[in-house]
Amino acid sequence: MSKLFCITDDPISVEEVVQLVSRREAGAINTFIGTVREFTYGKRTLHLEYQTYRSMAEKKLEQLGVEIEERWPEAKTAIVHRVGRLDIEDVAVVIAVSTPHRADSYEASRYAIERIKEMVPIWKKEHWEDGDAWIGDQTETNPYPEGAPQKEDLK
Amino acid sequence: MSKLFCITDDPISVEEVVQLVSRREAGAINTFIGTVREFTYGKRTLHLEYQTYRSMAEKKLEQLGVEIEERWPEAKTAIVHRVGRLDIEDVAVVIAVSTPHRADSYEASRYAIERIKEMVPIWKKEHWEDGDAWIGDQTETNPYPEGAPQKEDLK
């Protein structure tokens, strides 16, 4: 793994993503790891399936990297998002942000995860115990099934 | 590594600390990694040396775990702090907090690092290019050399 912003089909190594941003100027690295949770408000998930429009998603992640650099010029960011079938406890996304001082690493990391959910074309299919549903993006509070992928979007 | 709160002389594996808090109930894991920075406000560090009163430090880390549990009952926390000589870019501390939803993981992780610097007896000796100095705690803004370790504190 050497690209700072990428989509992968394989399990993500947190350590490798951290290595991408580790550097002599940094005193702080914040990482956010999104994992597959079994229960969401009492409803049981069996597994998830992420699909994406890959080239667009990586472009959007890079664009997010630029946004972060504009806001936190001393930050270095890496984001890896996994797609395909994920089981409970699997890692879906890892964000790592290194900065000289810690406050910035928290803020930029938080910004990154919120923006990923807003702007990156990744769709999640929840396989519940009692059926399944496409969740348009990954937001928990505002799922919009109308955002589900069209066949031509999935590459 | 199996203890949730510990002091170690060895390099810290971020992946292992994350594993300690990974679980089916979690959808989010925030980690904070404190690393040795080369330059602090223009002053160059060659390496650092951390010393601790080990049993007391581990007790304090466990106490911090209880504080976090009181504030974020759904959080699971692990904290590993390294002591001894650390070179530039080495990892000094890893905090991992897993929670069902992401906002709590950020907040609890941030709380943890601030409290570590306030309450855990770990002293840092900065070996600068032009000399060295004990920093009473690890805060960057309020070093208090009078907090430097006494011989009998270091075990």
Automatic annotation (TrEMBL), chains A, B:
Any single Pfam family the record assigns to this protein: MoaE
InterPro entries per record: MoaE_sf, Mopterin_biosynth_MoaE
Region (Disordered): 134-155
Protein name: Molybdenum cofactor biosynthesis protein MoaE
Upper taxonomic lineage: Bacteria, Bacillati, Bacillota, Bacilli, Bacillales
